[in-house]
Amino acid sequence: MTGERAHKKRQSKRRFRPTPWQIVFAIGALLIVVAAGFGYYALSSNRSALATAVTTTTSQHTGSQGTTTTTAIQPTTPGPQFSAAIQAENAKPGTSAWRISGYQIKDSIQGYTSNVSILPGQSFNLYVSTIEPSFTVTAFRMGWYQGNLARQIWQSKPIPGVSQPKCPLLQATNTIECYWKSSIKVTTNSTWFPGDYLLLLHGTNHQESYVPITIRQPNSNSAYLVINAVTTWQAYNTYGGYDLYHGPIGYSDRSTKVSFDRPYSYQFGQGAADFLGNEFPMVSLMEKLGLNVSYVTSVDLQRFPNVVKAHSVIISLGHDEYWSPQMRSVVTQARNQGTNLMFLGANAIFRRIRFDSSPLGSYRIEVNYRSAALDPYNSINQKYVTTNWPSPPAADPESSLIGIQYSCNPVHYPMVITDPSAWIFSGTGLTFGSRIPQLVGSEFDSYNPNYPTPKNLQIFAHSPVLCRNVPYFSDMSYYVASSGAGVFATGTNLWIASMTTWVCPPPLSGCPIAPVVKMTENVLNAFGNGPAGPKYPSISNAYQVYRHPPIPPLTPYIPPPAPTTTTTTIPRDGCPSSSTTNPSSSTPSPGTGTTNPCTTTTTIAGSTTTTYPGETTTTTPSQTTTTTISGTTTTTQGSTTTTTATATAP
């Protein structure tokens, strides 16, 4: 052994003696690690945790004080299933003052915002038109709040009321777009806890309406991400007399572009659009459970595609029909990377849209021509032509992502359970053939093997319906993607509405419907901790159920056959044989007076009717009537027969 090697060996056996500076450094490092651990827990509970691995983005802002650089930390893995911050928020006192009450005059107060969503600390303009002398704006965060469903976050001072100009019609696309002056600029701060908000406009004389807005969570990695379907809200918004379905005449003068620069009609959720009926029952349930949830809008999927990253599950609500190619692409990519998907409605991803800009900014105009021949993009880029998703060009039926697809409307039928051993039914008490009254409707989705569908699709409920007198089945489905992500779809619009805790909408009764709430909780639990597939694999049965329905289809209604009658024209004494049953001539028919009139005899359906020339006879079914030209009527079996003579007897 050389001297150098021996020296190193002796050094390796020496006991390590740290210097005082090394001790201080080690203690400091330990404290930093511990603090980081507590900080991670706290941030995770507040839904903006720093994940194990992070990416950073840098932005610069130039102002009067020079240039500042901001570095944002973006999490890359989902946070925990439950949130201490959400639980604490909903433990705060709520209020029922958010509810509109009292007599409301149509269009007495209405408004819209310059943004469909913002981050805490950002501002937005609110545009209001009213007949009221003044009004206030109150911001309510919607949640559970011990059953009160909302908490007041902010209220404005009284604002002078102004009747804004009528919103003009852009005739080329039948678009109603308002050019109102801003009534107030609202600047949020840290007290605006991220979530779904309703702004209550309250006039001096108690005229009220809502304006919705979403407050996004910055750099969220919440376990659950809820999509407010504002693109579908706007498609059905009839403010100004036009939406994507109808104009004043009907379908022929409908809009092909609709603008977010206008209020939601008061008749549409009192200005809150589809939020209260098709979305809020799910929001209040999740907040009640204390789940780690954050909120974005469907427009945000287009504007900020990174919002879908770092979540365990993305949730589409009760009616989420209008999707752009970019919106669909980012959600599909999320599924392919292990993010679970919940479609809690029907008719999702059916209409393909794109966006244009308005005077208030980008993504404020929603485009949907329906027909490729009408869409200018048909000769520019067919990927963005706004037909239905199952239709060419670039057809891509929604079933390739959802598993099932839109079939028909309107219907109201029970949901029928056909796979009761599946995990979703745990604790519900449902068995094979159990029926949940009126849960299917008004639109529904079905499995159809003629369209692209995951091969391992599992049907949980296969409910027979008649739509426009044609037999269908509405399906509730589940499948596991190759990434392990689970994809669940209810197949009915009324799923979320059935969980409401305040007003049960017709035709439902007994809300909240306990089995629906329990099934929803089962899916939330299964999907809230990463890909659901490993623990809840899908058992392929869709094609078997389709070919051999475990519950028979309904039989179409067959109307009774139309009455058959035989009409014979017989000339009577004094009536010319050339006369017809309905002559156009007004020449009097000859006759022999009251002793020999030209008469009409009509008998019940299925037998023979004898008609004499010179008269027209209209008879309701199931009666026998004899009528003379002189105008007297004798009815022997029910209602009156009207006889009009084309000639007058002498």
What's the structural domain tally? 2
Low-confidence stretches: 1-16, 32-70, 578-596, 600-605, 607-650
Question: Beta-sheet strand percentage?
Answer: 25-35%
Strand order of the largest sheet: 16-14-17-19-27-26-25
Question: What is the CA-atom radius of gyration, in angstroms?
Answer: 34 Å
Approximate shape: globular
- Helices and strands: which structural class? alpha+beta
Q: Helical segment tally?
A: 11
| End-to-end CA span | 150 Å
- What is the number of beta strands? 34
Estimated helix fraction: 10-25%
Characterization of this structure:
There is one protein chain. By secondary structure, the protein is α+β, with helices and mostly antiparallel strands. It has 2 domains: 91-547, no CATH class; 566-645, no CATH class. The protein has 11 helices and 34 strands. The longest helix has 26 residues, at 20-45.
